[in-house]
Amino acid sequence: MKVKINGETENVLALWREGHIVKMVDQRKLPHSFEIITLENHRETAKAIKTMVTRGAGAIGNAAAFGMAQAALEAENKPLDEFIEYINNASETIRKTRPTAANLFKAVDKCLEAGGWGNVSVRVDGIVKRADEILKQDMKASKEIAIAGNKLIEDGFKILTHCNAGALAYVDHGTALAPIREAVKEGKDVFVWVDETRPRCQGARITAWELEQEGIPYALIADNAAGHYMQKGEVDMVIVGADRIAVNGDTANKIGTYEKAVVAMENKIPFWVAAPGMTFDLDITSGAEIEIEEREPEEVSMMWGQGEDGKPTRIRIAAEGTKVRNPAFDVTPYKYLDGFITEYGLIQRPFNEGIRWVFGQPGLLPWFKYR
Ligand code: RI2
To answer: Which residue segments constitute the domains of the chain, with CATH numbers given?
Structure first.
């Protein structure tokens, strides 16, 4: 991802590992300041996931894997039984951070599997290598998603996106923003409508910032404005990311995605979900089984931003004591989706073959066609 730092353009990843240390862009501070945070151990990394220093399904999967690598390195001098106990406890700490994104749980499981045999040093090596591999595979998948999704984008398209599914959410081109980046690279004239995405405003704070950094034309709109532009014929397609996708195609993504999908269908606008295999949960048959994270009421009753003095400021919108509900995600039923943009290609209607087939397990989901 390109970032302008003190006038110079640099390539920065959302997060990376340096030995036992994990570094990540502090996404809570964007767009008003660009800071890299250093996490010394797996507990700090788990806290960073929970408090959304890093966020986005893919990035929290990487953070989870790096947390596992840190735990392995922290325990490398312990006897085997203590090592196993330490790793299991660390995996529980990491699993408890955020419940919805499939990538987090898969990353932890993959690391446990890689560290599940041999003596301590073999296990440490296995976990650390697996954590690094997950990042490498994500970077490759992100590029493949970019190429697959670009095929859907025509010159002159205006594309709506919700939340942030860019390079900060999925290293290193993003999911939803990856095809857009690719289209622009190919010289297509593309414009992006950016939903602000209350309550945390990842659209306003992160997507708009990413697009600005890359010089991609966009306009930030209030969440409530998306339907208006769809109705006016000013949206050619919608692309969003995903946090967890069930075998039937039901998709959990940032709260508000469901509404956009319904309005898109009403206006006959194609609605695509860009997501890697890691986000598909083949153990659940429908979206009803997806746990929806409920976050702090202050995300709704207060806003964070930059004050007129240039300093970070929190202001209260609703009166103190106001009752709040704050689900972070919703589930869009598969019937509203035109398909999925994955590293394996496009999975689109008419859905004749199964997602399980696409991901190497023949069987279910008879109405998905892999192309
Ligand atoms: P990738 C975000 O959640 C949004 O739901 C967004 O669509 C998704 O993660 C992006 O993840 P949050 O972590 O599809 O900001 O890019 O709450 O992996």
So the answer is: 2-142 (1.20.120.420), 151-369 (3.40.50.10470)
